[in-house]
């Protein structure tokens, strides 16, 4: 059914985002030049788009689970204030977990702001060099108007310094793309995990869940050690935990 495709989309988009994240790091590990900078930023866009797509898929699942009108499903999104009002009418706790001042709400709005760069002035690469030694690193530059809001979100999530977000030249803000991704990715995955756990899928007709069915299966060959190891290899183990 279409619902199964939506659920699958959340997982496959995270998988694609992981692949694009690796391509960002591969580009950043090359000698810094224009081509490697372009490759890093192109895949940074892919990460933002696919992670936002994964979150949007879970929002549509929640929309259906809550029995909200089909005609408003295209507007489902955890960062959308009007849609959250309709969610609150059916599940106040779920809506409240994405309020603007919450940790989940801040992470989603930060990602949405970064994703929306594809609709406006694109983030640009900035070469950082030492006289006589050439370019040493590549940073990503954000327009001042967007950067002020991005910095405010990052301050709620541990501080802009932690995210390597600063003003290198006047009227522009910059971030190390690798550091930005390594803070953003596990935070978004944590939001996805909590969202899927909180979505009341038991409200679907014919669904009856037992508590043990809401836990990872015991016989899939993966114990806690293996799960922790995989999470660490994917750099998804420890997202920032600061609460706004």
Can you characterise this structure?
It is a single chain. By secondary structure, the chain is of the alpha+beta class. It is built from eight helices and four strands, in the order αααααββαββαα. Strands 1-2-4-3 form a four-stranded antiparallel β-sheet. Helix 1 (2-28) runs antiparallel to helix 2, helix 2 crosses helix 5 (103-115) and helix 5 (103-115) packs across helix 7 (177-198). The chain is globular. The protein starts with a helix and ends in an 11-residue tail after the last helix.
In short:
With 244 residues, this protein is α+β, with helices and mostly antiparallel strands. Helix content is 53%, strand content 9%. The relative contact order is 0.13.
How does the SSE layout of this entry go?
Blueprint: H1 2-28, H2 34-65, H3 81-88, H4 92-96, H5 103-115, E1 124-130, E2 134-143, H6 144-156, E3 165-166, E4 172-175, H7 177-198, H8 224-233
Antiparallel strand pairs: 1-2, 2-4, 3-4
Helix pairs in contact: 1-2, 1-7, 2-5, 2-7, 5-6, 5-7
Tell me how many strands there are: 4
* pLDDT < 50 stretches: 127-136
Structural class by SSE content: alpha+beta
- Read across the widest sheet, the strand sequence of neighbours is 1-2-4-3
N-to-C SSE string, H for helix and E for strand: HHHHHEEHEEHH
Largest sheet: 4 strands, antiparallel
Number of helices: 8
Distance between the termini: 38 Å
Shape, per Cα inertia axes: globular
**Approximately how much beta-strand content do the residues carry?**
5-15%
Query: Which radius of gyration do the C-alpha atoms yield?
Result: 19 Å
Residue share in helix: 40-55%
* Mean pLDDT over all positions: 82
């Amino acid at each position: 059914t279409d619902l199964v495709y939506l659920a699958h989309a959340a997982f496959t988009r995270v998988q694609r985002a992981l692949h694009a994240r690796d391509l960002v790091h591969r580009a950043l590990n090359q000698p810094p030049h224009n081509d490697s900078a372009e490759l890093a930023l192109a895949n940074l866009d892919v990460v933002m788009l696919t992670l936002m797509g994964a979150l949007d898929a879970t929002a549509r699942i929640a929309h259906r689970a809550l029995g909200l009108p089909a005609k408003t499903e295209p507007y489902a999104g955890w960062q959308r204030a009007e849609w959250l009002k309709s969610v609150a009418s059916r599940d106040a706790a779920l809506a409240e977990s994405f309020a603007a001042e919450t940790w989940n709400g801040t992470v989603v709005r930060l990602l949405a702001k970064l994703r929306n760069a594809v609709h406006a002035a694109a983030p640009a690469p900035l070469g950082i060099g030492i006289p006589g030694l050439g370019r040493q690193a590549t940073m990503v530059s954000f327009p001042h108007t967007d950067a002020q809001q991005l910095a405010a979100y990052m301050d709620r999530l541990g501080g802009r310094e932690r995210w390597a977000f600063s003003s290198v030249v006047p009227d522009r803000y910059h971030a190390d793309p690798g550091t930005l991704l390594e803070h953003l990715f596990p935070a978004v995955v944590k939001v996805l995990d909590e969202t899927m756990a909180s979505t009341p899928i038991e409200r679907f007709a014919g669904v009856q869940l037992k508590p043990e069915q809401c836990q990872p299966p015991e016989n899939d060959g993966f114990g806690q050690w293996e799960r922790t190891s995989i999470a660490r290899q994917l750099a998804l183990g420890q997202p920032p935990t600061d609460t706004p």
